[in-house]
Specification:
The complex is a heterodimer of chains A (about 110) and B (about 325). With about 110 residues, chain A is an alpha/beta fold. Chain A contains five helices and five strands, in the order H-E-E-H-E-H-E-H-E-H. Chain B has two domains: about 130 residues, CBS-domain, CATH 3.10.580; about 160 residues, Heat Shock Protein 90. Classes of the chains: A alpha/beta (about 110), B alpha+beta (about 325). Chains A and B meet through helix 2 and helix 3 of A and helix 9, helix 10 and helix 13 of B. The complex binds adenosine-5'-diphosphate and magnesium ion. The site of magnesium ion has 4 residues of chain B, from helix 10.
Chain lengths: ~110, ~325
């Protein structure tokens, strides 16, 4: 399952620049809104599902080299955050669904 | 190089100065040797006479030249060698009698910092630059590095004077530290916008120096948590200082207040004094210090309430994880 298929299946909105998402294969994921938990829990190359939409999530994802952040419940990061994400090469995706449902769908798709 | 720069003897560095040194150090990782070297240097062959060395040095105003045979570097002749020859009035001798064979070299695509370390450890004045095939592509002096860094800094800074001063400082720093490299960052209290930038830079520097992904990640997480603590919990911000040595990474994070009332309590998982507003951003889980203790081999947290906090951490590097000087030493061994 590549990131392009995940974006399509979950109807995610791409907030940052286009990338060859079909080449990116997230193997696992992590869900939490507490940054310290993400720091220990999230794996390199994994997806991160969160309600947080402020600029500090970009630093966390960059540091951990995550494949993308899925921001839930339609929370909208500001322009500066999107800019920073583009600068750092971090992909931001947005879902209208809540974290519970997004994680459930990812699990169904085999991201475990 | 020294005549144009006011040499600083004081070891006390102001925060502003430290910030600038950091930028130069970063550039030393970003810029490649081939970007600052002198390409196509004057070369000589082993069978030429020392008399010709004297003339070439005088005419071209150089103080050293690589000796090549069919493009392959076989030695180097320097002004010191020429002096030895002059003392003996032996100008009719061939270069091979006086040249240094198998000289230290740097690769064109090495970052400048590798060359800096080589200059410090070998005390040579110039380094021949070779490509992957071992063919000579240029020559590098400390002056070339200074000029290259100054040129790169031109985008950053305004006045010539300040630029000179800053670049010169790097050499002083690296030469005095010898086997270690120090990165220093000033963190402002409440500066959430730049949260995590210092730790990203530290991680990137480590990766460039050849640290394993695991070591870079552990160091990145530990410095991130410490950096955020400076942003969230201090009154005046603080400093992150990272010393990278072949066998260990030492991270020192200190601030001037408010300090921690009960250090033991602060270390407990889940304990946090973060405000509601900060918690809403996802900080203040009370797991930062716990995370740090998991990532580092030694952790020492000291604090005086009303005075400040100092957090010292060490990550030990096993042989296969060796970075920095060790990295250079490895490539040296391969050459010998
Ligand atoms: N540099 C510091 N200055 C003052 N207090 C600190 C500092 N670092 C940590 N603390 C205290 O230790 C507590 C625990 O820190 P930490 O484990 O990182 O959790 P958190 O940052 O999520 O609160 C903080 O809430 C704070 O009270
Ligand atoms: Mg913390």
């Amino acid at each position: 399952m590549n990131l392009e298929q995940i974006i399509q299946s979950l109807d995610l909105k791409l907030l940052t620049e286009q990338k060859p998402f079909h080449e990116i294969q997230p193997t696992t994921g992590y869900a939490a809104d507490l940054l310290s938990c993400v720091m220990t829990g999230a794996s390199r190359g994994g997806l991160w599902v969160t309600l947080q939409a402020h600029s500090n999530i970009v630093a966390v994802a960059a540091l951990l080299e995550l494949s993308a952040i899925i921001i839930t419940e339609g929370a909208q990061p500001d322009e500066a955050t999107i800019q920073k994400a583009n600068d750092e090469g971090v992909t931001l995706l947005s879902s209208q669904q809540d974290t519970y449902r997004v994680v459930g769908r990812l699990w169904e798709l085999g991201i475990r | 190089m020294t005549e144009q720069t006011p040499l600083r003897k004081s070891s006390l560095i102001s925060d502003q100065e430290a910030e600038n040194i950091t930028r130069v150090e970063e550039l030393a990782y970003e810029i490649k040797v081939q970007e600052v070297m002198t390409p196509n240097p004057i070369t000589m062959t082993a069978s030429m006479k020392m008399q010709e060395v004297l003339e070439q040095f005088r005419v071209a105003r150089i103080s050293g030249a690589p000796i090549v045979e069919e493009g392959q570097l076989i030695g180097i002749i320097s002004i010191e060698d020429l002096i030895r020859c002059l003392i003996k009035s032996d100008l009719e001798a061939e270069i091979q009698k006086y040249m240094t064979r198998n000289p230290f070299t740097v690769k064109g695509d090495d970052p400048v910092v590798e060359a800096l370390k080589m200059f410090v450890s070998t005390k040579v004045g110039r380094l021949p630059v070779v490509n992957k095939e071992g063919l000579l592509i240029g020559i590098l002096t400390k002056g070339d590095i200074t000029r290259g860094l100054l040129k790169a800094l031109q985008q950053d800074y305004q006045t010539e004077e300040v630029r000179r001063y800053r670049a010169s400082h790097l050499f002083e720093d690296i030469e005095s530290e010898r086997t270690s490299l120090i990165l220093r960052y000033n963190i402002k209290a409440g500066d959430f916008t730049h949260g995590g930038e210092a730790s990203s830079k530290i991680k990137r520097a480590l990766s460039r120096m050849g640290a394993s992904p695991q070591i870079a990640r552990r160091c990145g997480i530990a410095t991130y948590e410490a950096e955020m603590n400076l942003i969230i919990h201090t009154t005046e911000g603080g400093v992150i200082r990272v010393e990278i040595e072949p066998h260990q990474i030492s991270i020192d994070v200190y601030d001037s207040g408010p300090g921690i009332k009960d250090v033991e309590l602060a270390m407990k998982p889940g304990y946090s004094t973060a405000s509601e507003k900060v918690r809403e951003l996802g900080f203040g889980a009370g797991m930062g210090l716990v995370n740090i203790s998991r990532c580092v081999d030694i952790m020492k947290l000291e604090s005086v309430w009303g005075k400040g906090t100092r957090l010292r951490m060490k990550i030990f590097l096993k042989k296969e994880d060796t970075v920095g000087e060790g990295h250079a030493a490895k490539s040296l061994e391969e050459k010998r």
